[in-house]
Specification:
The chain is α/β, with parallel strands linked by helices. Helix content is about 35%, strand content about 25%. It is built from 17 helices and 24 strands. Helix 4 crosses helix 5 and helix 5 runs parallel beside helix 6. It is globular and about 70 Å long.
């Protein structure tokens, strides 16, 4: 068998945590090989080993039959192994070509050969059927186009193995379709694709084989055509989990209006935003990329300014000009981008969870560490955070567990109105099921929730009502009984029902 990559008895440990435990499997040359598992299963650790992020580990990694141990990502790139990261890092003040060639610019003596750089970049972009100009600046480049540039970087390095880590998590449907076409074309050219995704539709559409990790251990490798979706999920999580969000408890909507937004406007972003939220309600916000749902939520929370409009909380007009104003009125916001807005790097879970409510843990002007730790331990247990340690650095956790810490931070405030912006983005099906159960528990306890989500089954299964936005305006309000994917999509795309 002709293998591009072989992992043999790979083990990686961190203090108190075994991230990978004796993992062995192989990736065939020229195939699309999916790697799946719950958050914390070891997927990112394995990719970091393959790409030189972690150079110290037990076991062997082989590239084209030859053992390798990359000291850093540059070693991997020189060997033809490139990675397209989930969180794309490009330099906004440089051109497209400069980003593609960054650190490896062609030279003419001591100077950069810009003519050759632009010409070579144009050839790569044409191969990807991208309309981007190599000399164009990054201003206004969409998330999908950034992914194309990242793929272009890999092709520039003549990569024969390309890892794609959650490549569609921030893309629109059209951008996702374009990327899928490129993956198929790369495969036709004999390039090996190592594909990591929580979106099982993509796994089944694209991959030839799939490898499953659970709790750092190998569950197995399977021909994608020979494993069912239900079986794959069972092997991932070790239990039956529905892939669709459904309400398990009675609906809790009460007549009392806890939040009312009237005529909220911020020219250039959104206009005439009107909606209400009832006690015990899960109110969904649907819309395509660019609908400005996040901008509206940030404005309601006081994170961004508004020009006009009124917000009423529990029957009283509220002047909310900062997140502190919102917090004092019992409003919390779980932001879409957890890594830059959800938690503080270098802090532990205990410290991050307490950030929004430090006053609760003060005694005589000083923070009582035992109280703070007890609070963190409570939410770590309640949300099933893994590893279940309050002293663990949040940034070293998987994306799904980081998200749980962010949610815990806002639950600690005991806010009765919670805005959750894409709370299940980039997390696995098991963590999603836990998140759905948590939302039901929260409304059962009398809280009210605004759920912003791009996953229509999530909105349909969980929400009592859904507001649909298009280009900064509310175009429809749909009840639970009326909701369907077709209806929500028609409103989101056309502004009217079909």
């Amino acid at each position: 068998m002709d293998f591009a990559i072989e992992f043999q008895h790979v083990t990686k440990t961190f203090p108190g945590v075994v991230a990978l435990d004796d993992v062995s499997f192989a990736v065939r040359r020229g195939e699309v090989h999916a790697l799946v598992g719950e958050n914390g299963a070891g997927k990112s650790t394995l990719l970091n080993i393959l790409h030189g992020g972690y150079s110290e580990y037990a076991g062997t990694v082989k590239l084209n039959g030859t053992p390798v141990q990359f000291r850093n990502p540059h070693d991997a790139i020189h060997a033809g192994v490139s990675k397209v990261h989930q969180e794309i890092s490009l330099v906004p003040n440089l051109t497209v070509a400069q980003n593609i060639f960054l650190g490896y610019e062609p030279r003419m003596g001591p100077l950069v050969d810009f003519h050759k750089m632009n010409r070579d970049a144009e050839n790569i972009l044409k191969r990807l059927r991208s309309p981007l100009r190599p000399d164009g600046l990054m201003v206004g480049v969409s998330a999908g186009e950034m992914q194309m540039i990242s793929v272009a970087k890999a092709l520039f390095h003549d990569a024969q193995v390309i890892s794609l880590d959650e490549p569609t998590s921030s893309l629109s449907s059209a951008e996702t379709d374009a990327l899928m076409s490129i993956v198929r074309e790369l495969k036709e050219h004999g390039i090996t694709i190592f594909y990591v995704s929580h979106r099982l539709d993509e796994v089944f559409d694209l991959s030839d084989r799939v490898t499953i990790l659970r709790d750092g251990k190998l569950v197995g490798s399977y021909e994608t055509s020979e494993i069912s979706r239900a079986e794959l999920i069972r092997k991932m999580v070790g239990r039956d989990v529905s892939t669709f969000a459904t309400r398990k408890q009675p609906r809790r909507v009460q007549p009392e209006v806890v939040l009312e937004v009237e005529d909220l406007s911020s020219p250039g972003l959104f206009e005439d935003i009107r909606f209400s939220l009832h006690k015990g309600e899960i109110l969904g916000f649907a819309g395509l990329v660019g609908a400005k749902r996040t901008d509206v939520m940030r404005a309601v929370f006081g994170a961004d300014p508004v020009v006009s409009g009124k917000v009423t909380v529990h029957g009283k007009v509220a002047r909310i000009t900062s997140p502190m104003d919102a917090l004092e009125r019992g409003i919390g916001l779980v932001p879409e981008n957890r890594k830059t807005e959800g938690f503080v790097r270098y802090l532990t879970n205990e410290a991050n969870i307490s950030l929004t409510c430090l006053r609760r843990f003060q005694r005589l002007g000083f923070v009582d560490r035992s109280l703070r730790r007890s609070n963190a331990d409570t939410y770590i247990q309640r949300l099933n955070v893994n590893p279940p340690r309050s002293d663990f650095p949040t940034e070293n956790m998987s994306g799904g567990n980081q998200q749980k810490v962010v949610v815990a931070k806002w639950l600690s405030t005991q806010a009765d109105i919670l805005i959750l912006d894409e709370p299940t983005k980039g997390i696995d099906v098991g963590a999603k099921a836990e998140m759905y159960a948590l939302l039901e528990d929260l409304v059962a306890a009398g809280k009210s929730i605004i759920l912003v989500s791009s996953e229509l089954p999530e909105l349909i299964g969980l929400c009592d009502r859904a507001v649909v936005m298009k280009e900064g305006r509310i175009v429809a309000e749909v009840s639970a009984d009326e909701m369907s994917e077709e209806l929500l999509l028609n409103y989101a795309m056309e502004g009217v029902a079909s």
